[in-house]
Specification:
It comes from Mesorhizobium australafricanum. Pfam families: Bac_luciferase (PF00296). It is an enzyme of class 1 (oxidoreductase). GO terms for molecular function: oxidoreductase activity. Keywords: Flavoprotein, FMN, Monooxygenase, Oxidoreductase. By secondary structure, the protein is of the alpha/beta class. Helices cover 42% and strands 13% of the residues. The strands form 2 sheets. An 8-stranded parallel barrel has the order 1-2-3-4-7-8-9-11, surrounded by 8 helices. Helix 7 packs across helix 8. It is globular, with a radius of gyration of 20 Å.
């Protein structure tokens, strides 16, 4: 058995990550507000020995310019901390990670909420720190517009430091540029000491913040070379903050479509792609590129030159690089992007998908993967019953949990 084993997270998204997942013949269109649906997904992932489940969150309709049926099916859903608190009572081992923004929260309240989830779950909670890059979210909090990228990260650095101090029971009394906190938390540490810190920014500011604060980093990369470059860059920054390479686990997103044969898997993918209306694909692409009028350009023409965004800088750069590298038209890029929102997609048999994951894992481009099923529960079931056993057969993934807390699953130190 391999001494080093990959980590696996399940990235939950109601009906699935493909933009047209809600149109799949077997989709549960109101999945976002069906607790039994989420319990089933969590239990499937736990039975397959996943390290964690992860809930993204945005305080606004990020894709509000997409047609109403798609918007409704993809946007309805529970507030994630409430959802994970319910799932904590329905599971025993799997980690529970949620997004919460440093732009629209205060450190004391957020630290208290996640510390509560951590205790409720017996030490299985994690916080995915985001700075929020959508003008739509900003409008919901009385802001006059999206804060500049550098300002959002300056606030996030102070925010993360205050939260870590509160979780680690150090004296409060913080009086900084953005926040003032007087008291310590009224909640004791959980069995894992403190919630796991997760980060996903890929800009220079984002990678620097991750090197300072993160235990886990989610990332997006299409090619092995992109994944390897990100991995080496981030791991190389840790020493400046007195940290070791193994202190941070890097888990790129992957959207697998698996079947008994390559042809069957390809047919499953092609069928999903045929469900994407062009206007929906272009609108989704526009929202991630932070451009409002992409639809005015010829859909079979190239992506135009775009100004640098104050929104999701790293995702914009990833999409533009792919368009230029592969010579894709707007239509082709939109259809590709709609399948996994810029993340790596793998289509094939269990053995072929395991080969791809193993190559990136053993090649030093990943410590594990954040699995993004195209539609739920179908592709999660396929991955859990086909790919996970193949990884276990190769000694690349656990056969059972070794501990009870998320830090134990991930091989992370307990905070001092």
């Amino acid at each position: 058995m391999s001494a080093r084993q990959m980590k696996l997270g399940l990235f939950l998204w109601a009906t699935g990550h493909h933009i047209a997942a809600w149109r799949h013949p077997d989709a549960h269109v109101t999945a976002g507000i069906d607790i039994d649906h989420y319990i089933q997904l969590a239990r499937t992932a736990e039975a397959a020995k996943f390290d964690m489940i992860f809930c993204e969150d945005a305080a606004g309709l990020r894709e509000a310019n997409i047609n109403i049926a798609s918007q409704t099916s993809r946007s309805i859903g529970f507030e994630p901390i409430s959802l994970l608190s319910a799932l904590a009572a329905q599971t025993e081992r799997i980690g529970l990670v949620s997004t919460a923004s440093t732009s629209y929260n205060e450190p004391y309240g957020l630290a208290r909420t996640f510390a509560s989830l951590d205790n409720l779950s017996g030490g299985r909670a994690g916080w995915n720190l985001v700075t929020s890059a959508s003008p739509i979210e900003a409008a919901n909090f009385g802001a006059t517009g999206l804060r500049p990228h550098a300002d959002r990260y300056a606030r996030a650095r102070e925010f993360a430091a205050v939260v870590a101090s509160l979780w680690n029971r150090r004296a409060a009394g913080h009086d900084g540029e953005s926040f003032s906190v007087r008291d310590p938390l009224d909640i004791p540490p959980s069995p894992q000491g403190a919630p796991v810190m997760v980060q996903a920014g890929a800009s220079d500011d984002g990678k620097d913040l991750a090197a300072r604060t993160a235990d886990v980093v989610f990332s997006a990369a299409q090619t092995f070379e992109e994944a390897k470059a990100f991995y080496d860059d981030l791991k190389g920054r840790l020493g400046a903050y007195g940290r070791q390479p193994n202190d941070v686990k890097i888990m790129p997103g992957v959207a697998p479509i698996v079947a008994a044969t390559k042809a069957e898997a390809q047919a499953k993918y092609d069928a999903l792609q045929e469900l994407i209306p062009d206007d929906v694909g272009v609108a989704l692409l526009s929202s991630y590129l932070s451009i409002s009028d992409l639809g005015r350009y010829p859909i079979d023409g190239p992506l135009p030159e775009l100004p640098e965004s104050e929104g999701m800088k790293s995702r914009q750069a990833l999409v533009i690089e792919q368009a230029r590298r592969d010579g894709l038209s707007i239509r082709e890029l939109a259809r590709y992007f709609a399948g996994a929102r810029g993340h790596w997609r793998v289509v094939g048999t269990a053995e072929q998908i395991a080969d791809e994951l193993q190559a990136r894992f053993e090649g030093g481009a990943a410590d594990g993967f954040n699995v993004m099923p195209s539609w739920l529960p179908g592709e999660l079931d396929a991955f859990a019953t086909r790919v996970v056993p193949e990884l276990q057969r190769r000694g690349l993934f656990r056969n059972d949990y070794e501990g009870r807390t998320l830090r134990e699953h991930l091989g992370l130190k307990r905070p001092v």
